[in-house]
Every structure is written in structure tokens, then in C-alpha cells.
Amino acid sequence: MSSDSNATTETDPCLPRQFSDPEVAGIGVLVSFGISILFNIFIIVLAYIGRALRQDRYNALDHAFLTDLYRLVGKKWESSNRVLHSTQHVLAFEAFFQSIADQQLFTGLALVVAIYAIRAGVSGLDAETSGYSYIMAVNLALLSCLAHLSAMTVLRTRLGKLKRLRDVRVVMIVVTFALLMPPFVATQMMSSLETMRCEMTYFDSDPHLLVWNDDYRGQQTLFLATLAIIGFLSCGYLRRLLELYFPIFRASPEAWTAEMLEAICKWPSQQERQNLNAGAESEQDMLLSKLNKTSQGSKFQRIFQRITRIFRILAVVFAELTRSFLAEIIWLIFYTTFGITQIIYLFLWETGEPEAVGGPVSFKWGFGQILPLVLLGLPFLSATELYSNIKHLKENQQTPSTPGSNNLSTTTPKTSQASQQAVAIQPPLQNTHESLYDACLKSHRTTTLCGTLAVVVLYIVTVLTAAVAFTGIPWMRLEYNEFWGDESGNESGVTLPGYVTTLFLFIGSLLLLVCSLYWSLSWIWRGRYRRPYYKVDEAALQ
Q: What whole-number distance in Å separates Cα of residue 208 and Cα of residue 205?
């Protein structure tokens, strides 16, 4: 097999000598990346459950969800602000997680530099690297960027403390993501069986590969899918970057939309805003009265009123879910699932060809495979240190320190007050009254909790299904004779499921954008009763 492969490579310069490069597609590289990405998500979920996040990240739905979760394991959820406890835990967790985030950022940047070195043909790399190895490198770089995206979600307040370092990180993020998108788009149409030199020659000769084609549905499928994927990734990064610089973006989509409209269009004016705010509580009271209204009338009318009340409660639950950190975790899982399934689809579709000699994963051990596995111990070592620090803090809380003791957790009132202010910071957008979700819990607790469970499960299933579908759509562009191995030569048919799914998701994305804008305007027009009413705390913005 090896001699036949070498002979074929000598006669055909477009066939790579090695299908899967061990430095990119080696078992050590893939295992280390997979474990590190899953480790990030696990740490975030653990911090969410263990109250290691800042208090302003938990809303009413988060408290209700964690209360029931703690009740299932026989513990009590404490939603009160225990400043010393939360301060020390949050600072320890954020310091640990930021080191992991920076490691992911530099890993992604290094992979992007290597990708462009291959593309530029440095030292003849383009003639030796297969399309498969190149696509794998792009996907691993994307996975690193998505892992860093999850870190930005958790560390947005900490990153805003040191503004110069924040700006440096943001520049690195933007540069890495911007440089990664062109190779990512190219890999959607690239063959994995040829060398990069031949592939790039083909791309340079046909610059319209990713332009809308009226004659070929496969091209339309690829165009719409790629556009939708880039849109989702760009919006995810844009939102996190805006949250770093503008606290108004952290409240809700409606809050920052209102501020942007006022800044750009001078609408609503200050007087109009005061009028809208004056009617906000009356609008909320009206909705609460409808929720608490006793069913009256005939049996059919009572049933109809109960069904209407259930839908109103579900609307309140969904609005609260979109503002919760639980929704943030679900979307982080969306991005992670998208990145991992990119690699899985690459394994399934591109490595079944006869030319794919060596298989999708290289088991040839070398320095490039051993190094990432060894470096994988760093985050686990840091996690062990974090656990030891938290355990030490808990012991010190139970045992008061004595004067003169060498206790690292003993702090002066000045330093303790500074650390408390670093974490127990008041959010710049403060809720001026009880949320609708809290009101629903008080009046219809069982219905609200059951509705919360149903909405959360449906939300998770929808988001994860979209992640898998978005990843698989570009592979569905294949014609029937390619996909099913039909040798009849009939090229008129393309995979209809892929085409229909692409249209459905793309149109759904556009409808979601339009509906978001409509809901934003409706939130302003109707006195902001659909979400808890916020006011700007000018002191917190300083």
C-alpha cells in the first residue's frame, strides 16, 4: 500500500504523500483539543451551579432553577448576598479561568499564523500539506476561538477592569477571528484529497465558488449555509465585545436598542422616555391582573382563560430565560457543538474515499503529539489549586483567625472592602421592581416551574439541533449520485433535504432578526412591560 501510494504521488503531484498530518490530525492533538474544550464548558457549568459567578449574572429564573436543583440533591440554595463568600470564590475562579482563556486565545492565533504560512507556500508547505490537514487546522483554530468566546462571556466584568489589557485582548480577538473567516469559507468548498497548492490554484482560477448560482442548488445550499454560519459566529463575538465596552448591552436586547435609537435618531426623547417609564408599572400591573384573574363564565370560557394564562406565563418564562445565564450556557454549548461536529462531519464524509490513505487520525507518535497531551495537565493542575484555595477559604470562614497568625486569607478592612467592591458591584442597569417571573412564581408556582422546565428543554433541543444542522448543511450539497454512490451519471438531483434545511434555517435566521427588532420597538412603545423595567445608574457607569 505504501509503495503504491508513493508511486501515485510521484505521477500525480496533486496527491499528498500523507493524507493526515500527525502534527494537525494526530491522536494527541485531537484528544488534547477535545478535552480542553469540554473542560471549559464543565468549569463554567460548575461555577454556575456553585455560585462562583458574580451575583448580577443570576436572574429570577436562574435562582428558581438552582433552587430546585439544590433541592434534588438535598441542599439549600442561598440566594442572599454573602459578600465575603462570593468575593473570594469569584476572584479565585476568575483568575483561574482567565489563564485558560488566554491560553486558548494564543493557541488560536498560532494556528491562524500556521494556516496562512501553509497558504503562502512557506518552505513548500502547500505542496506537502493535504486539504484534509488544512481543513482540520482551520477547524481546530475555530474551536479555540469558540472556547475563548465562552471565557469572554464569564469574564466580561473582570476584563473591563484593566482597560489597556482589555484593548490588547480585543485587538487579538478581532484580528484572529477576521483572519480565520476567509480560510473557513474556503474550506466549505475545498477537497480534502489534494494538496493545498493544487486546491488554491483551482480556487484562484474560479473566484465565484461562493457566489449565488441560479443553476445549481448545491451552490445555493453552500452559499446560504456559509452566510448563516458566519452571521451566527460574528453576532456571537460582536455581542460579547459590545458588552465589554458598553454596560447597556448587558441588560437585554431591548435596552441597548432603545439607547442606540436615542443616540442616533434622537428617539425617544427624554420627555417621551419619562412618559413611557411612567406607564411601565401600570402596564405591568395590567398584565399581572390578567395572570391573577380568576376564571369565570361557562366551562368553555374557564378552559379558554386557563389556556390563555398558561401562554402568558410561558411568554414571561421565555423572556426571563433569554436574560438568564442558563441561556448563555446553552448558547456556549451551541458554539462548542458546532465546532466539534465540524470535525466529526469531516471524519465521516471526507475520509471514506480510496485516496484517503492512512485514515482520518494519525497514530504516528512524535513531539507534536506528545507536547499537547503533556500541556493538557496545566489546566487540571490549576483546577486542583483552585479547589484547594476554595477549601482553605471555607475552613477559614469557620475558624476565626488569631492575631499574629500566618493566615493568607486574613485581610485588613481596607483590602476586604476593596475586594468586596470588585465583585459585589452594582449592575449599571438596575431593576426597579419585582420581575414578572417572580410574580408568576408567587401566584402560579406549579404552572411557572413546569413551564420553565418545558421551555428550557425545548430551548436546549432547538439550539443543539440548529448547531448540528448548521454544521451538516454544507455537506448536504452533494448530488445524489455522489452521496449514494449512483454511477448512472444523473447530475440533475441534489440532496433535497440539505437544500430545504438550508432555506429553512436561513429564512428562520432572517425572521429572528426581524422579530428581534419588532420586539425591541414594541418594548419601547408599550412602556417596557415585556421585560423588567430598567433605569440607568449613572454612578455605576463611572
A: 9
